[in-house]
Every structure is written in C-alpha cells, then in structure tokens.
TrEMBL record:
Pfam families: Glutaredoxin (PF00462). The keyword Cytoplasm applies. This is Glutaredoxin domain-containing protein. Residues 14-26 have a biased composition (Pro residues). Residues 1-29 are annotated as: Disordered. Belongs to the glutaredoxin family. CC-type subfamily.
Length: 155
C-alpha cells in the first residue's frame, strides 16, 4: 500500500539548500544596466520602424495575390467575426494580422490618404471595407456576386 507524504506547512517539500541572496548592485553597475536597457529599447524601436515598411509591402503583396484578404489585429474579435461570416458563405479568406494597426495600411486604397479601419476586407485587390460595410453588403445580397467576380466563390 502507498504511504502518504506527511504535510507540514513550516517546511518546503523537498527540502532545498539555503542560498544566500546576491549583493545589491553598486551605483556604477546600476547605471550601466539602465544604459544597456535604454540602448536595447532604442534598437528595438529602430528595428520596428524598419520592419514597418516591410510589413506594408507584405500587406500590398497579399492584397494583390489573394482573392479575399482580411487584415486585422492579432486576437481581434471583429476579425474573427469577419472570417466566420466569409467561411459561412464558402470562402476561405486569407488573414493577415498586423501589430502596428492602421499605419501599415496607409496607401493601399485608391484615395491614398485614406487609412481603412481594422479589420479591413479586401476582395479582388480592392478595399471592400470593415465589418459594418461587409455586413451591409451581405444583408443587401450583393456580397455573393462580388465574391464570385473576384474568383473567391465557385458556385
């Protein structure tokens, strides 16, 4: 038969050897740590700025290649609703998740200065709109013909 392990709140199980706490850093070490953290943060910001241009190009390429593209933020519930609506119609949309928001979508629409709200739905290389526009087009019955024209539906 199994034996129960005795429980005692006063000691940890299994007993661990005592390790002394490290000494606190000196003022010079603290200043060096802060300087390193600031340098790392500024380098990370520069890297994100450089990737921002690349992310915009990636979205442009995806809009040109995919018949239906949903661009939204990671974990956004509205993007999920758009995707499920399109899947319910028989369309398998490509989903592109952006971290920076609408700034990556600037210049993708015909106006140039207009920045679409997220989630943005692109059908046939053109901006259809966000969730509100997609729902309006769906309710009016115009969404299925638009998807057929874009080659996203084979019905």
């Amino acid at each position: 038969m199994y034996q129960a392990i005795p429980y005692s709140a006063s000691r940890a199980w299994p007993p661990r050897p005592h390790q002394p706490a490290p000494p606190p850093p000196t003022m010079a070490e603290s200043a060096a740590l802060v300087a390193d953290a600031v340098a790392a943060a500024s380098a990370q910001e520069e890297e994100q700025k450089q990737q921002g241009g690349g992310a915009g190009e990636e979205v442009r390429r995806a809009v040109a290649e995919c018949p239906v593209l949903v661009v939204g933020r990671r974990g956004c519930c509205l993007s999920h609703v758009v995707k499920r609506l399109l899947q319910g119609l028989g369309v398998n949309p490509a989903v592109h998740e952006v971290a920076g928001g609408e700034a990556e979508l600037a210049g993708l629409v015909d106006g140039g200065d207009v920045v679409p709200a997220l989630p943005a739905v692109f059908v046939g290389g053109r901006l259809l709109g966000g969730l509100d526009r997609l729902m309006a087009v769906h309710i009016s019955g115009d969404l299925v013909p638009i998807l057929k024209d874009a080659g996203a539906l084979w019905l």
